[in-house]
Structures are given as structure tokens and as C-alpha cells.
Design goal:
Layout (H helix, E strand, L loop, with lengths): L3 H5 L10 H17 L5 H8 L3 H8 L5 H12 L9 H16 E3 L5 E3 L4 H13 L5 E3 L9 E3 L4 H10 L24 H15 E4 L5 E3 L6 H12 L6 E3 L3 E3 L1 H6 L15 E2 L1 H6 L12
Parallel strand pairs: 5-9
Antiparallel strand pairs: 1-2, 3-4, 5-6, 6-8, 7-8
């Protein structure tokens, strides 16, 4: 799901077209110095065909940013995770959270602004499980949504999310990729929780129909198809793709994000057919409360 090469390639070091090559060069230098502890920078550079100026910093204890990032991710247990590892389920929801209610900016800061308290509770627990000590931003600002973000190692964590397929920057039809295919390889419970999180944040009920619309009009066809595939992986009922992704009433009845089993039509806001087609919103049910 996330390997060190993909993580290294989220960095942009000078003098390297492929950041993974810098990772390899650094390790070659460290191995050579361990075998030849008396070699100077010129000898090491000549032996490895590297500029002595680059070698010097690494011999003096410096590390490329990509190396620091890989070591941080490995310390947290974020790299090369098996599908059965509990970290995989946590990463799956955190990745879906970026698509549904979050963002990763150009500085590699990830923040979530969930509208539903249920989503906020879930994401807080997932971030905690991954060891990033989540914190809240804008909690006391009445005109701004409360955001959840990592309190420690946030940049490396955001890069891992990006390496796992989460979008970075502005999200629209041209820039937002399809959902990562590895989500379909996770266990059924993990997939269900991903779909439920997306429903809580992007779902609305067609008034009087109880079909659930996953708002995705400003996303590509490939994106909507990938979202529909994920939904179909947790239900045998109808899921259709048009301007949005729509779960049939039967499919919606199977998904109950609450611990008490409350059906979706008691949780999600409702909209009229016309408001959905025009982009307007008519909220008539609260999404507050766990």
C-alpha cells in the first residue's frame, strides 16, 4: 500500500530527477563508510561516482529529507503494511476522509473538516491509532469549521496519505484522481467503514425516496465509477452512476453507520430532486450527534 519508494517520491530534492535515487545513494554512502571508516569524502565520492560535496554532508551526519521521512514512517509502522494489519483499516478511512471532507495542501499539511460529529469521532480515533496525536483547529471560531489535523509528524503522515492515493491540492474533476484500487483489497468491514464515512460527509437523501445521493458532480467519470465500485463491494443492492453516485433505498438500508443501528434516512440531510440537479441544498435533518 505504502512503500518507501512511493514515499520518497513525494519529496523534491535538488540534483535528483527521481528522489528514490537519492535514498539509494545515501544508503550506498553509509554502507561504504561502514566498510571503509578511514576513507575521506573524495575517496568515497570517487568510489561511488558521487560529488564529494554531497557525500561530505552525509558523512557528517546529515540526512536527506526523504531519508528522514522514510525513517519516521517506518518508526510509526506506516510502511509495507499487510492488508490484515489494523493500520491498514485506519489508513483506509484516513484516505477516504481526504476525498470526503479533507485536504492536503502544497506544504503537505493534511486537515479534515467533517460536518458530521460521527465522522469527527471516527477520524479522531483513526488518527490516534496511527500515532499522530490529533488536535483541533478553529475550535473557537464560530465562522470557521473545526478541523482535525495531526499534532506530530503531520507532514510525513500527509505524504504517506498521498503515496496511498489521497488527492493533494484543489479537488475538482481535473485534479481529483479515482479512489485508490487497494481499498477494494481491504476486508469487508474496512470497506464498509470507508463507504459509511463517505456517506456521512457526502450523502443526502432524495426527498420521499430514501435513495442516497453521493455528491460528486464536480468529479470525473473515472472518480464516480471508482466510488461506485467501492459501494458495490459492500452491498449487492443497486448502485448507479450518473451525474452523481446513487445508492438505492435497499442499499441504503444495509448501511448503518451508527453503533445503535440507526438507518441512514434518520441521519443524513434530505434534498429535493430540483435542488440536487441545480446544486442547491435543502437540509431538513440534522447530522449532529454521535
Amino acid at each position: 500500500m505504502i512503500d518507501e519508494i512511493a514515499l520518497a517520491r513525494t519529496y523534491n530534492p535538488r540534483s535528483y530527477a527521481d528522489p528514490a535515487d537519492q535514498l539509494d545513494d545515501y544508503r550506498r554512502v553509509k554502507r561504504y563508510v561502514n566498510r571503509h571508516p578511514n576513507a575521506g569524502r573524495t575517496a568515497v565520492g570517487t568510489a561511488l561516482d558521487l560529488p564529494p560535496s554531497r557525500v561530505r554532508g552525509w558523512m557528517d551526519g546529515g540526512k536527506p529529507d526523504a531519508v528522514n521521512g522514510v525513517e519516521c514512517a517506518r518508526k510509526h509502522g506506516w510502511l509495507d503494511i499487510a492488508m490484515a494489519d489494523p493500520h491498514t483499516a485506519a489508513f483506509a478511512e484516513c484516505v477516504i476522509g481526504v476525498f470526503a471532507c479533507g485536504s492536503i495542501d502544497r506544504r503537505w499539511t493534511v486537515a479534515y473538516a467533517p460536518a458530521a460529529d460521527r465522522s469527527r469521532y471516527r477520524l479522531w480515533n483513526r488518527l490516534s491509532a496511527l500515532g499522530v496525536e490529533p488536535t483541533r483547529r478553529h475550535r473557537s471560531a464560530p465562522t470557521r469549521p473545526t478541523e482535525l489535523l495531526p499534532g506530530v509528524d503531520g507532514s510525513v503522515f500527509a505524504r504517506c496519505l498521498g503515496a496511498a492515493g489521497a488527492p493533494r491540492g484543489t479537488k475538482n474533476a481535473a485534479t481529483t484522481p479515482p479512489l485508490p484500487s487497494w481499498l477494494l483489497e481491504t476486508d469487508l468491514e474496512s470497506r464498509r467503514r470507508c463507504v459509511e464515512l463517505y456517506l456521512l460527509e457526502r450523502g443526502t437523501i432524495y426527498e420521499d425516496k430514501e435513495t442516497v445521493v453521493l455528491r460528486s458532480r464536480n468529479r470525473s467519470e473515472a472518480y464516480r465509477q471508482s466510488l461506485a465500485h467501492l459501494c458495490r463491494s459492500v452491498t449487492d443492492e443497486e448502485v448507479s452512476v450518473g451525474a452523481n453516485v446513487v445508492l438505492s433505498a435497499a442499499a441504503a438500508r444495509e448501511l448503518r453507520p451508527d453503533a445503535d443501528g440507526s438507518p441512514l434516512f434518520e441521519i443524513l440531510p434530505t434534498e429535493t430532486d430540483s435542488s440536487l440537479s441545480s446544486g442547491g441544498t435543502k437540509r431538513s435533518r440534522s447530522v449532529r450527534g454521535y
